[in-house]
Amino acid sequence: MVNDHHTYEKLTTITSEKNVMVNEHLKNHTYTRLGGMADFFVTPETYEQVKQIVKLSIKDDIPFTLLGNGSNLIVKDGGIRGIVLNLKQLTSIETTGTTIVAQSGARIIDVSREALLKRLTGLEFACGIPGSVGGALFMNAGAYGGEIKDVLESAIVVDRNGDLYTLSAHDLDLEYRSSNIPEKGYIVLEATFSMEAGNYEEIKAVMDDLTFKRESKQPLEYPSCGSVFKRPPGYFAGKLIQDSGLQGKEIGGAQVSLKHAGFIVNKDGASAEEYIGLIHFVQDTVKDKFGVNLEREVKIIGED
Q1: Which residue in the list 227, 244, 257, 271 is annotated as catalytic?
Q2: Residues in the active site (predicted)?
């Protein structure tokens, strides 16, 4: 375990004591309510602090992990060694004309609401996506026919060397539920969205309709990672799981949702091991029954 006083002193010098938590339970920072402890959980307040923390991790050879708002993520029971960086303090959202600039810690839902208030159309699809702006770029988040690449103009990132860059949307290789952000090791600090002027009532009507669809179909009453699997070509993951007779299947405290088979919920104090075990069971069953490989949309990190 990386947990020495020298590292703590260096981190608190870069940011401050209130922004550095030691042995922090990561289940407090994930939508699934799963995950062991982080050696250091750090919440910087400026881009410069992010750069310095990355450079410290390189210089002192400290493991480094970026954690968004934990909506599309499972952290294993053994937790995460070294520095876990969280950008929840970088939440500014500013609009100029038809352009919205949002910091990575802001919720993409809040950016869609800002667009509505400023009568801008293009982000209606994001009104029910629980992730942060950074996470939305990381996986090119999408819903109901829209996706981030439709509206993203550019992003400010820090690379794995601690250097700052401004990149165009094209530079991020945004495709269905993917980007080159994980491969390149980028930390997204800020995104610029290019919108179009629209009618407030029309934008609100679309958002209200999508919110109703989400709330009526998704099991929001239990902790979950959201949609577990990518849509397989020619199929719907939820339908395949349902037709496999898996709705209601439980391993420990984890359950295939009775409301939507594409979701796995933490129904009763599940461990990450149980939750991940149920994901594997679903994949194996669907493969055996239909010959279809269900690819995970959710990311799994940490130690067993």
Answers
A1: 227
A2: 177, 227, 297
